[in-house]
Amino acid sequence: MTRRPSSSKPTSNSRATLADVARHVGVSAMTVSRAMSQPDTVAKATRDRIMAAVKKLGYLPNMAAGTLRSSQSFIIGGVVPTLGFSIFGDTVQGISDVLNGSGYQLILGCSGYSLENEAGLVTALIGRQADGIILTGTLHSPELVPYLRGSGIPTVEMWDISEPRVDMAVGFSNFDLGREIGRHLVACGYRRLGYVAGTPEHEKREKRAAARSRGFLAAVREAGLAPPVRASVPDPLDMEQGGVIAADFVEAHPEIDALLCINEIVGVGTLYEAQRRGWKIPEKVGIAGMGDANIAHLVHPGLTTIHIPGYKIGQLSAEMMLARLSEGQVKRRAIDVGFDLVVRGSTRPALQA
Predict the structure, then answer these.
(1) pTM of the full predicted structure?
(2) Out of 7, 28, 313, 334, which could bridge 169 as a Cys pair, Cβ 3.0 to 4.6 Å?
(3) pLDDT value of position 121
(4) How do 258-261 and 193-198 pair as beta strands?
(5) Which range has the worst mean pLDDT, 142-156, 300-314, 337-351?
């Protein structure tokens, strides 16, 4: 999260901000905030540069931040990767429905799957004195985890329960999800599997996607099958592009008898593209996805996939947060909501045992 130092100054008619100091020094806004509120957590050389910039730019910290934990703002901050599709929409609705009438208001930000953006949003939420923060996933920037723990602000991580965790978590095992859909494809009699995944860079920053990939590969190994042939899509949220890449992949590898897609968006895109090319599904190739957005059952044939109880995840995350804020503790620090295999017409029936 290190940035290049900047010589820019705030305009003469505006007050210097924490972001101005961060740009001037070439560090993140979070590092500046820590240097001023928790100086022992920042290296002395960096802290000295920050304080010199504070003096030079005339930055005046918001003194209200000093009372951050002494009073309640009744704000819960939430960060999700995107609202471009219905993937996380149900989860946000679940949070909102629980918070309505509780006296707390939800402030929501979208990170765009960027750890740096997520860190910036969390810094802003803490600056607005949020009483609690709800994040998506358990992978964050290296600076964010100690910053959150040091702040003492209750934090719930959703959609994943893998460790290490910041505080509390509501979700499921993404490894088990990938393994479940892989085992189903094997049970259907498929033996030459293909996998349309994200890029290696995507899986490095998307812990959930990487865990699902490992689970799928584990199921293939358990069955004694050859490793699946793999293709990558640069943008897992681009339905049209993902579908074309997947269909071209099948044509380039005619031996593939079933294709697993990184998510339901690429899976549905593949079904659309297969229909455009005149393919019969699942006769030509079985197609499955991971994640059961509303569109997955609207296409023909419907997409075989894993249903994730997104609304329930949001509900339980908000309930866990309210319990911590009102009682100071929760019965369970992590809740596994599980998931459900949904078999539709895009794959052939499982073989009889």
Answers:
(1) 0.78
(2) 334
(3) 95
(4) parallel
(5) 142-156
Q: What angle do CA 168, 174, 177 make, to 5 degrees?
A: 135
List Cα–Cα distances, 9 to 23, 45, 58, 139, 159, in angstroms. Answer: 9, 22, 10, 34, 41
Sheet hosting strand 132-136, strand order edge to edge: 105-110, 75-80, 132-136, 155-158, 168-171, 334-336
Sign of CA dihedral 56, 57, 60, 65: negative
Q: What is the pLDDT of residues 85-114, one digit of tens each?
A: 777 999 999 999 999 989 999 999 999 989
**Residue 334 φ then ψ, to 5°:** -140, 135
Report the pLDDT averaged over residues 279-304: 90
- How far apart are alpha carbons 315 and 258 in whole angstroms? 35
Residue position matching structure tokens 């049209």: 240
Among residues 34, 37, 130, 117, the alpha carbon closest in space to that of 80 is found at 117
Q: Which pair of structure tokens corresponds to residue 187?
A: 């049970």
Residue 261: strand pairing partners? 196
Token pair of 31 as six digits: 């590092």
Name all contacts of 150-153 with Cβ < 8 Å and 24+ positions apart: 150/34, 150/38, 150/41, 151/68, 151/126, 152/69, 153/126
Residue 198: pLDDT above 60?
A: yes
pLDDT at 6: 47
Residue indicated by tokens 């249903």 = 307
Residue whose pair of structure tokens reads 């806004």 in the numeric block: 29
The average pLDDT across 148-177 equals: 94
Alpha carbons within 13 A on the beta-carbon side of 318 = 26
Sequence-distant (6+) residues with CB within 8 A of 18 are 29, 32, 33, 59, 61, 127
Can you give the pLDDT at residue 60?
64
